[in-house]
Amino acid sequence: MSSQPAPGSKGANYHKECSGPALDTVHKHSSEPHDDEYGEGMTIFGANFCPFVHRAWAALELLDAPYRMVEVDPYQKPKELLDSNPRGLVPALRIGKDKVLGESQVILEYLVDRYETAVDKPALLPRGDAYRKARCRLAVDQVNRTLIPSFYRYLQAQETEKQIEGAKEFVAELQKFNESMLPEQKGPFWDGSDSLGMVDIVAFPWVYRATIVLKHFRAFDMSAVAQQGGRFDRWMKAVFGHPAVKATTSNDNTYLDGYARYAENRPNTSQVANAINSGRGLP
C-alpha cells in the first residue's frame, strides 16, 4: 500500500478545488447571484492557489457583494471561463450576463467605484480624502510593480546564489512596504485605520503565501521583517485574522502543492512564471 506523498513534495500536483474555510465559502456562493442596489450580480472565476484571485475574492467578501464563485482548473480552461475572458486568465469577473472584466486590480477598482456611495459598506479606498486615497494608490503601485515580482523571482530561483539574491530582494521589498504604512491612528491596517482596505487586500496574498510557501521551499523566516509586536507583525495578524481573508483562505497543503511547480520552475507553469523567467513585466 503506497503512502500519500508529503505536501509540497517534488512533483506534487495542484488541487482543483479549495479546502478549509475557502471551500465552505465556495459552497455558500454556488448559486446564481442576485442584483443589489449598486449593480447586477457578479460571477468570479478563480483557482484556489492563485493570489490574484485571492485578493479580488476577499474584496467581494469584505463588501458582502452578491456573487457566485466558480472554481476553474487554470490548466484546463473551461468554456464558461473562456467565454468570459478569452485569454483564460483568472480572476475574471462577469457582471450580469454580458459585462466582463479581467485583471484583479481592475476588478478591485471596479468594486471601489461600484460601492463608492455605499456608506453601509467598508470603503476599499478612503472616501472624501483625495490625499489619503492617492497615498493608497502609490502603495498599491509599489506592491504590484516590485513586491510581487520579487516573490516569484525568489521562489523560482534554482541556484543557491540566485536564491540568496532573491531572499535579499524580497526582504527589502517587504521592508519598503512596512515603511510605507501610515501611522496607526485607529488600528493596525496599512492606512492606520481599523478597517481592511485596498492596500491590505492587494498585498496580503503574497505575504501570506510567504509564511507557508517560501518558508517550506526556501526556508524563509518572516521574522527578518516582522519582529514580534512590531508594526508589520501587527499588520499581518490583523489582516490574516480578518473574516474576509479567513473565509477565502484554503488549508496550507493546498498552497504547498499548488506552488511546487513554481518552486521547481517547471516549464509553462503560468504566464506569470514565464514572464519572470524572461525578465518581462507581469501579464
TrEMBL record:
Protein name, as recorded: Glutathione S-transferase
The keyword Transferase appears for this protein: yes
Region (Disordered): 1-35
One Gene Ontology molecular-function label: transferase activity
Organism domain of life: Eukaryota
All copies of domain GST N-terminal, residue ranges: 40-119
Domain GST C-terminal: 129-271
PANTHER family (UniProt xref): GLUTATHIONE S-TRANSFERASE OMEGA (PTHR43968:SF6), PTHR43968
Gene3D superfamilies, per database record: 1.20.1050.10, Glutaredoxin
PROSITE patterns hit by this protein: GLUTAREDOXIN_2 (PS51354), GST_CTER (PS50405), GST_NTER (PS50404)
UniProt source species: Acaromyces ingoldii
GO CC field: cytoplasm
Keyword Methyltransferase among record annotations: no
